[in-house]
Specification:
The strands form two sheets. This protein has a four-stranded antiparallel sheet with strand order 4-5-1-6. A two-stranded antiparallel sheet has the order 2-3. Helix 4 crosses helix 5. The chain is globular and about 55 Å long. The longest helix is centred in the middle third of the chain and has 20 residues, at 107-126. The chain is built from seven helices and six strands, in the order H-H-H-E-H-E-E-H-E-E-H-H-E. The protein has helices spanning 14-19, 24-28, 50-53, 68-77, 107-126, 152-160, 164-177, and strands at residues 60-66, 81-84, 87-90, 131-133, 142-148, 187-191. Strand 2 and strand 3 (87-90) form a beta hairpin. With 197 residues, it is of the alpha+beta class.
Length: 197
């Protein structure tokens, strides 16, 4: 199973993306006609430059993967809630003794909204926008993504406008949130389903 990388040494690293060091993005354009790698694609730290410029490249998202169980526990730990009409429902109620999901008619709605609730909470804490995406993975249920390989060149510039230090702080806040209570989650590129295909 091959990863979306090669033995070519001029891959743009995360540091390159943030600082523009070494003219990474100018080198990217030189690989626009390179062959696209075959599926399936493993999560990885870096992509081959052709993934940023070839419109036929597989859709990859740069972010933190999560499992539904971790997000549910996160909503309870951080006392998050969801407004449903006139009701403000707290997720901590789902962990109370005697709670029976069969008797709670809004349970399925609360469950479906967990990713968006956590995403909004993280956005408020870190000050940057995230996307909820769904990886081609048998282990993880979703990804909180910063950007995809198809819009990275544009969005990285926007994310860096407030300053590199602020961006680094935001990344640290999200990374800490996604690694609470012994959970292990790295910032990686994930092959995701195209929701609009």
């Amino acid at each position: 199973m091959s990863e979306p990388s090669s033995d070519d040494q001029d891959h743009p690293s995360v540091a390159d993306q943030k600082s523009g060091a070494g003219g990474s993005w100018s080198r990217v354009s030189n690989h626009a006609t390179r062959p696209v790698h075959k599926f399936p694609l493993k999560p990885c730290e870096q992509l081959h430059p052709s993934f940023y410029t070839n419109p036929k490249a597989p859709l990859m998202f740069y972010g933190w993967a999560w499992k539904n169980d971790y997000l549910m526990k996160y909503t309870i730990r951080h006392k998050l809630s969801y407004r449903l009409g006139d009701l403000q429902i707290h997720y901590s109620a789902l962990a109370e003794p005697g709670f029976c999901k069969e008797d709670f008619r809004h349970y399925k709605i609360l469950l479906c909204e967990v990713p968006e609730v956590v995403k909004t909470h993280l956005e408020t804490r870190c000050g940057i926008r995230l996307k909820v995406e769904f990886p081609e993975s048998g282990e993880y249920d979703g990804v909180f993504a910063l950007y995809s390989n198809h819009d990275a060149l544009f969005l990285i510039e926007l994310l860096l406008r407030p300053g590199v230090a602020q961006f680094e702080k935001a990344l640290g806040t999200i990374h800490k949130a996604m690694n609470e209570k012994g959970n292990e989650c790295d910032l990686l590129w994930w092959h995701c389903r195209d929701k609009y295909a």
